[in-house]
Amino acid sequence: MTDKIKIQLEYVINCSPKVLYNRLSTASGLSEWFAEDVRVRGKKFTFIWEGAEQTAEMTLHKENRLVRYAWVDEEDTYFEFRITQDELTGDVSLIVIDFTEEDEQDETRELWNTQVADLKHILGS
């Protein structure tokens, strides 16, 4: 098995950190852009895409700043959303951290670009 590599992507999002955090940390928010359906039981989030399910646990969260989901069925892999705000310009950025196989970096980036484009569309960003 190959070690997965960490990728970090940054997107400028025109909305408040609070509004953005809601879309990253709740089942209703995530089902608007990230997965077709999201079910929550405690800290476990089940994401559904085209009939396939994947479960992750929210292992870290700081209100309006950070959310991390660890995949239940894949050891040591997670994806994370960080929200940053530039002190001078007020620009809000979403930083996505994910892990992927070395030969799937482009596909993973493309997938996030598509997902985040949906998110921006919903937020009117």
How would you summarize the topology of this molecule?
Layout: E1 5-13, H1 17-25, H2 27-31, E2 37-41, E3 44-49, E4 52-62, E5 66-71, E6 78-85, E7 92-100, H3 105-123
Which features characterize this protein?
Alpha-D-Glucose-1,6-Bisphosphate, Chain A, domain 4, 125 residues, START_2, alpha+beta, single chain
Could you characterize the architecture of this molecule?
With 125 residues, the protein is α+β, with helices and mostly antiparallel strands. The protein has one domain (5-123): Alpha-D-Glucose-1,6-Bisphosphate, Chain A, domain 4. 26% of the residues lie in helices and 43% in strands. The chain has three helices and seven strands. The protein has a seven-stranded antiparallel sheet. The longest helix is centred in the last third of the chain and has 19 residues, at 105-123. The radius of gyration is 14 Å and the shape is globular. It starts with a strand and ends with a helix. The model has no long low-confidence stretch (mean pLDDT 95). InterPro entries: START-like_dom_sf, START_2.
Which architecture would the CATH scheme give at its second level?
2-Layer Sandwich
**Domains, number:** 1
Low-confidence parts: none
Task: Determine Rg (CA atoms, Å).
Answer: 14 Å
How many helical elements? Answer: 3
Helix content range of the residues, please?
25-40%
Structural category is alpha+beta
Encode the helix/strand succession as letters.
Answer: EHHEEEEEEH
Here the CATH topology equals: Alpha-D-Glucose-1,6-Bisphosphate, Chain A, domain 4
